[in-house]
Amino acid sequence: MHTMWKGTISFGLVNIPVKMHAATEDKDIRFRQLHTVCQSPIKYEKVCPACERDVANDEIVKGYEYAKNQFVLLEEEDLASIKGEKGEQTVEIMDFVELNEIDPIYFQKSYYLSPNEGGSKAYGLLRSALADTGKIGVAKMMIRSKEQLAVIRIYKQALVVETIHYPDEVRRAEDVPNVPDDVDMGKKELDTAKMLIEQLTTEFKPENYQDDYREAVLNLIEAKKNNEDITTAPTKPQNDQVSNLMDALQASLDKAKQDKPKPKPAKPKRKKTTATTKKKTASKS
Fold it and tell me: Which domain holds residue 161?
């Protein structure tokens, strides 16, 4: 399993060296956009509309738009100094709470934690303490240049970090439009609904559920492959410098031939007049 982060978990004076691994994976089917004429993949380039040219990565800076077309520029050094203050590679447990006190709307993404070199005993100590108390740890950590609120809990035999939203990132339920207040409901309808819920109640087994749409799309793709209903994007011609040089030389030669001034036609030579010629002309007349 790929290690995406290394650091320490700290609570009190205890420090646990750990590695972090993604606990979930996105299996969405992603499609490329192709040009309908030639089936080439469409490219997305970074272009400056004012300069009307492509922009290289080293020409790009971060800016925060505080008003329309008004930006505050932030240098990488500015952000790096803040990261350093926060301790980018430390998961600091601040409190311990009950898991059922956190509504699922706060949960964001899951990561497995494994002990790093020399951390197995402390890792096992935290895992056992969490199991015996039934508590989870509330912590802060830096992930991808963002300070994340997170909880640390046990999943099977592993410690798991669950990133959670800050309170100001969760929109107010009171702002949801058209939510009815208490609705007068007949007893018969309510009892029928409860009975239906009871009939459909079962033990949660994740393996009983699958993404039917994704499976159908994959089957469709496989069927098209087997029927050779496929397309191949044309390959871009290689930038052959020698060939390009010869083409340029030949084009230059052809142009030089066309531009070369054409020779002027020779003037007809005048015949010399002799005495004999004059006599012949005189006799004809």
Answer: 1-25+71-170
